[in-house]
Amino acid sequence: MIVNYRSSSSDEEPDNSSENDSSPPRKRGKATETSTSEPLDYGSAKRTEDKSTNKTPRLPLPESMKEMFREPEEQWTDNTEEHGGRLGSFQHERGNWVTYVFFPYKPEESFVELLIAFMVVTAAYGSPLIPSEEFHVSLSKTVVLRHHWIQPFIQSIWTSLTQFQKSVISNQTSLFFCMADKLRVYFNAEKTRTFLGMEISTGTIQLLELIKLVDQTMKEFNLSTFYKDPSFHVSLAWCVGDHTERLKSACLSELQGLVDSHEDGPFYIRLNCKELRCKSGNKVFLFPQQ
Fold first, then answer.
1. What is the pLDDT of residues 238-261, one digit of tens each?
2. What's the predicted TM-score (pTM) here?
3. What gap in Å lies between CA 244 and CA 256, rounded to an integer?
4. Catalytic residue numbers, as ranges
């Protein structure tokens, strides 16, 4: 069963894109809206006149009355100060929903302590990082859906995952876990942001199988598929601009030392892959893996 709920966290990027409003090749998901009545144009209303009386000149409708019946238009202005100076990858357009597929990670107490230590070290090297608001492993690129695409898109993923689960049951294998322990530096396609991430080292085979299924849906809707040689990871923190070389050369080894010499032994991010999710705008859809 597909469940959706409203996310409590704000989107990292606005719901926008420069894509045109074209429907996907799938017919079952096409939604149409019909209107049962024509809007009343108060500006062109004619006065009913009695032929038996003298004709009077028609007075123009005051502008103030025209404004009373004008439909309000929703406006959006990008203020980079509201999201830490980040630049969106998509130009805003009304009706577009930023969408991606992922496995969530719920931070442990020891993870939070380690992340704070990372912030102290990177700030000392002149590359202050901002902790991520939420943590996850992405199984798709961030794409844009028109609103009427969302339901057929989710249904397509659900159908593919059902086939995957049948294969898992037939092979008598259980739900899988992912583990991450190696720090890496990443950057976005525009090189406007730099990320510190922890790379997945265990469970990549199962993730690659799921990527194939998600990519099938992406192709069906003419959207970008995942990277050919992906580095699955959990993004820990970020900063504006391209600080890749500075982080790699200055403090990456020191940060990795904090991971390896953790008081309870080398620290691992343990990811229980029991619930795949898809976030589209402010809605999150759940796909239980059982």
1. 999 998 998 998 899 999 999 999
2. 0.68
3. 16
4. 136, 233
